[in-house]
Amino acid sequence: MTTNPIILDGARVADTIKEQLAQRVLRLAERQVVPCLATVLVGDDPASETYVRMKGSACKRLGMVSRRIHLDRETSTEQLLDVIRQLNEDPLVHGILLQHPVPPHIDERAAFDAISLEKDVDGVTTLGFAQTAFGFGAFPSCTPAAIMAILDAYQLPIEGKHAVVIGRSPILGKPVSLLLLNRNATVTICHSKTQELASIVRSADIVVAAVGRPRFVQGDWIKPGAVILDAGYNKGNIGDVDYDACLQRASAITPVPAGVGPVTIAMLLRHTVDAAENAASAQTIMA
């Protein structure tokens, strides 16, 4: 058992980020610039509607603009691409978020890649992923960025540590692995075909759980003193790790809820403000 493990309070980290953003939004307002996030929702998935509403409310609390575009479920790929093109061309829109998932008949990858790189505040484009791998330019996916923000907020060491990432999705497992690698961690990516998973996790100094299965990571998988970032969110507010069991061995752990989730939204807001500042600076240079 680890003595007094640190509960990594994502709500507190998110509040700190938003306090800093509020000052930046005020400075932009002095230049007649209001950061604007456009959210595009296709269909009527209740969970997606809730997520979009939460993101819109978070924008408004900071004095940002939330522009919501709600498209019918029968919207075609070409119609969706046309909407994204219009948002790309709108100078008042700084960030574009296409809510995942879209209906199955839509080419989601084509839609993601239609988003201009400078407005890809959710880190979903192929080019953005490539730039994340190289460590420059694009905005990383928001949940991986949130994980790194939590580690930094608590000054938890990354360099030289062995990080095991469970999950390889293109917007979570893969990009967070790259972010950790760029910070000089040694990274192992595990997935559904990984053999001896528990044994691999037991070697980890940092565990990132992003598998989408409730209480999947067991307490006896955890090396004493490991840091656990639980990026899972399952029905009933349950994460991907068995929290009570893992808490007994970890030196630090994120709860679910109030762990990675609030910081993910804060990072979306930060990226949108970054994009607004970038756009304002570009206009100043052109002028």
From TrEMBL:
Domain Tetrahydrofolate dehydrogenase/cyclohydrolase NAD(P)-binding intervals: 141-278
One term of GO molecular function: methenyltetrahydrofolate cyclohydrolase activity
One of the Pfam families matching this protein, by short name: THF_DHG_CYH
SUPFAM superfamilies recorded: Aminoacid dehydrogenase-like, N-terminal domain, NAD(P)-binding Rossmann-fold domains
Functional pathway: One-carbon metabolism; tetrahydrofolate interconversion
InterPro entries reported for this sequence: Aminoacid_DH-like_N_sf, NAD(P)-bd_dom_sf, THF_DH/CycHdrlase, THF_DH/CycHdrlase_cat_dom, THF_DH/CycHdrlase_NAD-bd_dom
Binding residue positions for NADP(+): G167, R168, S169
Organism ancestry: Bacteria, Bacillati, Bacillota, Bacilli, Bacillales
HAMAP family from the UniProt entry: THF_DHG_CYH
Single GO cellular component term: cytosol
Superkingdom assignment: Bacteria
Entry protein name: Bifunctional protein FolD
Reactions that this protein is recorded to catalyse: (6R)-5,10-methylene-5,6,7,8-tetrahydrofolate + NADP(+) = (6R)-5,10-methenyltetrahydrofolate + NADPH; (6R)-5,10-methenyltetrahydrofolate + H2O = (6R)-10-formyltetrahydrofolate + H(+)
Subunit-level organization: Homodimer.
Name of encoding gene: folD
Chain ranges of the Tetrahydrofolate dehydrogenase/cyclohydrolase catalytic domain: 8-122
Keywords for this protein: Amino-acid biosynthesis, Histidine biosynthesis, Hydrolase, Methionine biosynthesis, Multifunctional enzyme, NADP, One-carbon metabolism, Oxidoreductase, Purine biosynthesis
Biological process (GO), any one: purine nucleotide biosynthetic process
Family under the similarity heading: Belongs to the tetrahydrofolate dehydrogenase/cyclohydrolase family.
Protein's organism: Paenibacillus piri
Enzyme Commission (EC) number: 1.5.1.5, 3.5.4.9
Job of this protein: Catalyzes the oxidation of 5,10-methylenetetrahydrofolate to 5,10-methenyltetrahydrofolate and then the hydrolysis of 5,10-methenyltetrahydrofolate to 10-formyltetrahydrofolate.
